[in-house]
Amino acid sequence: MENQVTNKAELKIVRQFKAPQSLVFNAYASREAFAEWWGPAGSKLTLLSFDFREGGRTHYKLDNGGMSMWALFRYQKIRQDDAIEFLSSFTDPEGNITSSPFPFDFPLEVHNSITLSEKDGITTLTLYAEPVNATPEQEKTFADLNASMNQGYEGTWGQLDAYLAKVQG
């Protein structure tokens, strides 16, 4: 059997934070913490529900520049301080999965895997995301939006940096 190279639609971001691993993990695990930093820079987050556990769901609304959108995390695996896996989707206000509010064919579900590791007080966060049950067109859209998603996450990570600096004093 020969190895096949695939051009899979995926996103991988590695980012370092000047904070203990447990604090970075807790920024995802705590409703109060998550509400302070999640989302693109300049957007307003409203948490509609927050149930951080395997099988739990977090449903939220983002308001940005006059546009509102809703999204959902469905947690699959959580390993205390080390890893978080969840499916993310756009939703309607009631939490039903819907197509993207943007004028392109984005996957209905994206599997996200976050791993954390700490060395010398610096935590490395690795985010790996890929579409689930996506059409070829949705896979292409996801791949084409890589640079845009990286840029969006950079604003989110900046907010996480500010939150971590604040709670560490």
UniProtKB/TrEMBL annotation:
<feature type="domain" description="Activator of Hsp90 ATPase homologue 1/2-like C-terminal">
    <location>
        <begin position="18"/>
        <end position="164"/>
    </location>
</feature>
<protein>
    <submittedName>
        <fullName>Uncharacterized conserved protein YndB, AHSA1/START domain</fullName>
    </submittedName>
</protein>
<comment type="similarity">
    <text>Belongs to the AHA1 family.</text>
</comment>
<dbReference type="Pfam" id="PF08327">
    <property type="entry name" value="AHSA1"/>
</dbReference>
<dbReference type="InterPro" id="IPR023393">
    <property type="entry name" value="START-like_dom_sf"/>
</dbReference>
<dbReference type="InterPro" id="IPR013538">
    <property type="entry name" value="ASHA1/2-like_C"/>
</dbReference>
